């Protein structure tokens, strides 16, 4: 093989390359060993037993897998776990404070912002991230200008939440819940 190293295992399939990581998930240190090709979604669900983030499309198009990585929204189906070493990951399981619901969780219940509930964990994490972005003054595609903080009206909320799909069509409740917390 001209001095090249053979990295294939049985049947010509490459052997997995693993990495030892120190994840911090919902404030808890979680040491894991992962295949370097493994997504954060698979690590959360299969290795850590955190099944809140859902595998919807597995292509980053539906938002059901949205989690927060260092406070920013991330599609965990497109995020390689090896990129999450030594950062803070928050899943829907980490939003509540013990038995006290996160304000967005309570608002989702009050505004009937879910039907089947499959997209709800991603919607909640995305809403937390969207509100934080707006509070920091980050404009969206529909923010009228760059000099004033965004006003979280229905149009602004819909734009910021547009990467999260709901097959049941619970959008009016979702927008109302996010708006309630934004006020």
From TrEMBL:
Tell me the route in metabolism or biology where this protein functions. Answer: Alkaloid degradation; nicotine degradation
One term of GO molecular function: 2 iron, 2 sulfur cluster binding
Asked whether the UniProt record includes Repeat among its keywords, one would answer: no
Q: Which InterPro entries match?
A: 2Fe-2S-bd, 2Fe-2S-bd_dom_sf, 2Fe-2S_ferredoxin-like_sf, 2Fe-2S_ferredoxin-type, 2Fe2S_fd_BS, Aldehyde_Oxdr_Iron-Sulfur, Beta-grasp_dom_sf
Q: Which UniProt keywords apply?
A: 2Fe-2S, Iron, Iron-sulfur, Metal-binding, Oxidoreductase
Query: Domain 2Fe-2S ferredoxin-type spans what residues?
Result: 19-95
Pfam families xref list: Fer2, Fer2_2
Check the record and name the PANTHER family matching this protein: OXIDOREDUCTASE WITH IRON-SULFUR SUBUNIT, OXIDOREDUCTASE, IRON-SULPHUR BINDING SUBUNIT-RELATED-RELATED
Q: What is this protein called in UniProt?
A: Xanthine dehydrogenase YagT iron-sulfur-binding subunit
Classification from the root reads: Bacteria, Bacillati, Actinomycetota, Actinomycetes, Streptosporangiales
């Amino acid at each position: 093989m001209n001095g090249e190293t053979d990295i294939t295992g049985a049947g010509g399939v490459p052997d997995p390359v693993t990495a030892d990581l120190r994840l911090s998930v919902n404030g808890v240190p979680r040491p894991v060993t992962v295949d370097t090709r493994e997504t954060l979604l698979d690590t959360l669900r299969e290795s850590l037993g955190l099944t809140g983030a859902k595998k919807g499309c597995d292509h980053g198009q539906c938002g059901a897998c949205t989690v927060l990585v260092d406070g920013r929204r991330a599609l965990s189906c497109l995020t390689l776990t090896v990129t999450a070493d030594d950062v803070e990951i928050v899943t829907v399981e980490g939003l509540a404070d013990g038995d006290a619901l996160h304000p967005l969780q309570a608002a989702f219940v009050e505004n009937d912002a879910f039907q089947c509930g499959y997209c709800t964990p991603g919607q909640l994490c995305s809403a937390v991230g969207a509100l934080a972005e707006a509070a920091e003054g980050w404009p969206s595609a529909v923010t009228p200008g760059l000099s004033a903080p965004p006003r979280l009206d229905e149009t602004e909320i819909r734009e910021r939440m547009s990467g999260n799909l709901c097959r049941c069509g619970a959008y009016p409740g979702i927008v109302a819940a996010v708006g309630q917390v934004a006020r």
